[in-house]
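Workshop exercise sheet. Pairs work together: one partner reads the sequence aloud, the other fills in the structure field after running the prediction. Swap roles for the next sheet.
Pair: D.N. / O.F.
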Amino acid sequence: MFIVDFLKMRATLLACTLLCASSALNAQTTGVITGAVTDPSGSSIPGAEVAVRNTGTGETKTWHTNGSGIYTAYGLPVGKYNLEVTATGFKKASKTDIQLNVADQLAVNFSLQVGNVSETVEVTGATPTVDTASADISNTVETRQITDLAVNGREFTSLQQLLPGVSRTMGDEGGTGFNSARGFAVNGQREVSTGFQVDGVENTDMGNGTGLMTSPGMETIGEFKMITSNYSAEYGNAGGADLLVITRTGTKDFHGAAYEFFRNNDLDAKYYFATNIPALHYNNFGYRIGGPVFIPHVYNTNRDKTFFFFAQEWKRRDTQDTFLAATPTQAMRTGDFSAEAARIGQPIIDPTTGNPFPNNQIPLNRLNANALLLLQNNFPLPNQSGFLNYNLNAPDTDNWRQETLNVTHQLTSNTRLQVRYIQDTEAQDMGGVLWASQSFPNITTAVDLPGHSFLAKATTTISATLLNEVSYDYASNYGSKSQGAIALHGAYLAPQGLSIQSLYPIPSGAPDKVPNLYFSGGWGQIDTSYYPWWAHHNIQSVNDDVSKTFGKHSLKFGATYQHSATPVESQVDPGYQGGFTFSGIFTNDPIADFLLGDAASYSQLSKVITPNYIYNQLEAYVQDTWKATQKLTLNLGVRYYDMPHAFEQNNLISNFVPAAYNPAQGVTVLPDGTIEPGSGNVLNGVETVKSGLPRDLVKNYPWKFGPRIGFAYDPNGHGTWSIRGGYGIGYYRVQGNDIYSMVGNPPNASVVSVFNPQLDNPTTGQAGALQPVSLNSLDETYKIPMVQTYSFDIQRQLAAGTLLDISSVR
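Structure field:
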């Protein structure tokens, strides 16, 4: 590992540029410092001036206590702060080095002493350790932990395991971009019920519900907080926990670093089934720099107006994946199944006579020419003994690069702007076929999946008691259609001379692929899935959050509108190439069935289409933090959810609706699995938008409300211990994969299966009879997933900076 750190390097620098990003449902990631100002008798002091200074940027803002002696400083970015309170007839009081983390609500109270305002009473390192202002259960992972702790794979999501109540759901090493995932379940809930936000906006790939649109590098993250229970109503799109990530920003001083982390296989152990140690070469390197944008004597000379942060990071991974499979032996390829018959304990039957082949030897003139050609093209010869006779470590490379730019600008004394852009570039080449049952590395997958995240935000202090945050964000992953997303290399194309007749023609411009070949008994498979393939996730949202203080109430309310459009090519496997299944029903052995050209079944997608899936989502909330007494704070809120199911823009998707099924039109299925001609309607119960099906396919529930109720009680009023508890309801969107699988439903497309077909031509003979169609269906009631949480918590300060926290979370 190599790291160079440049601390407070001072130089003349002119920086520029904007852009920024993230993706969906907004919540304020700034913090709040609030408290009461009292005299020695405990009586409130109205009109006291509270100056709050950010030590990193030098920005100072001033608030005044209200008639109840309470001040609330809203919209404070993450960082360290100094607070100073002045009031006529009292000594000045200050508290310094108060650390404000992401989405914190800190209670910082002042008791002023009678005296001259020119005198100062100062308290250093006054960050409260006990939470007396909110009921949420949360934990923060700070900058030093992120940069200093050793993390396998250098993915910040792995640091979730430092937090209580979090359990791992992924492997030892997290992935980036396309291979990323939340990777952890919180308080026993499902992984998909956790929200993941970067700079206040959602960063989830809603296609699978767990992946990330972009994967912020560890050197770009300032800190992150996991709110596991009873969080404010301002946080949405997550029924369970919320993971809040804040990217680094510039300060008045220049800071930078260059680094490299390196791993290899020198000390690795051999995988149990591998014949040797798979290769591993991993390099993670990059740099970051941040500071003020200024021109000496011309612009921003005090370094307190415009700031930037830029980082660039690379990850280079060259490793190997172990492939262990069963492939036909050389003897079997010439028709000699004597050893195979002994292994399975059954003779090889001649399906034309019903008797065993003599000596379990299939005559050469009976071997199917197409089967022999596919054996030669797609099935490698054995390289070890035993049934699992093929073992190879195949290359797997992943090249990932990321750029992050974060610009903040103090437009006026009351308005702060932020523009942030994250760009991921990832190219991966792996042995085998992604998301498929391909058993051999002679077909490989190339993945090209960029990710983008842009955020523009304006924070305006309208008055001493009113703050507004408005933002727009856009996120996408996958590239252009011409660029493609996933491609295949190697032996996926039909070899010259292959003459297998399919049910449907190859789509225009699509490659002529080998058919999928599935075998029972544990034999290796051939599966090219639905590749080459393309999709493009686009999510954008507009968000507005308002904070208002009056009396003992700190009120927040706001709304988020999100629009998602995702064109996705057909994800049906087998696709247009079709797929044969060999089960041994003819000869007692699936490979013998294959060599004779006798399949148990054949399936094929009739047409490849590219639906465009769309959803529009609206959420709104109201949250009140009520300082009911000096010791008791109540957190009361409610969030409104309108989460309609995704629909297909061109009405290409159908659904099977049980209520629409007419028994009188039911088909008659014969013993051989075919349909008796003219016996009924094959599409009985299949509904489309034209026949009255809602565009969303299912019933929607636009009026969902999630209440949030909590309390924080300070028994002695000194902020050294608290009793907290609360209850909340949350909802979250189901990932898009539930509708993606319905692209093969008739009538616009269909997956047709035939039984007992010939390898050469599955349309001939009995296989040409009318067959039942395959259907994917959604329950039309389809309720929105809901999570209820409640907690009870006791915090006690044992010493300065030391806290005992006992919680019960359900």
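Discussion prompt: The first strand starts at residue 2 and ends at 9. What would you look at next?
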